[in-house]
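Following up on my earlier thread - several people asked me to post the actual chain instead of describing it. Fair enough. Here it is, all 196 residues.
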Amino acid sequence: KGDQRLSPANNLSVRYYRNVDRSRDTTPGNLFPLVSAGSNLPLQSITLLDTHSYGPTVLHALRLSYTRIPSYGEGSLLTQKTAKELGGKFNQQTTLPMTPSASISNRAGISPGASSRVDVDNIFQAEAKLSWMRGRHALKFGWAGTYTRQLTESAFRASGNFGFDGTFTGFSMADYMIGKPSTLTISNMYYTALQG
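Reply from S.P.:
Thanks for posting it. Predicted structure:
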């Protein structure tokens, strides 16, 4: 944080904040072998505050801030195989190997988690305040605005999701055991950008 008196009536303050919140489980005994195993959340924020006094009765303050919150999901430390390496006849859409997932109706689901996921939030804020004191009265006027941009990139179901519902044997678990899925869902890499 830094403060600077630009003139007897004008003060400028700048604050920068950074925090890296990272977690990763590196103990294989605590991990299901195919699950994603951590996250990385480096947060950065900068705020600029300009305060100007127009005499003893009028004070104006302008605050501008920018916050960036990128969130990175980190894949498993354990080696995974692609659907093709496991005998599938299709290529996955991700750059990192990721084992397919399976949904067994009324029984269980098997998922490797997301091999990689990126969420980036950019938040822009502006705020202006004007205070006017006159006699025993105080009037305050203000305005505040926020603009947000969010980007998401995910490999959800990019390696395939096999569904087993008992279509072939009458029992979903039996269909899974003999390798006869009733559905296969494959997604491309997911990108989305929201703003407003």
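The two ends are 29 Å apart (CA to CA). That should answer part of your original question.
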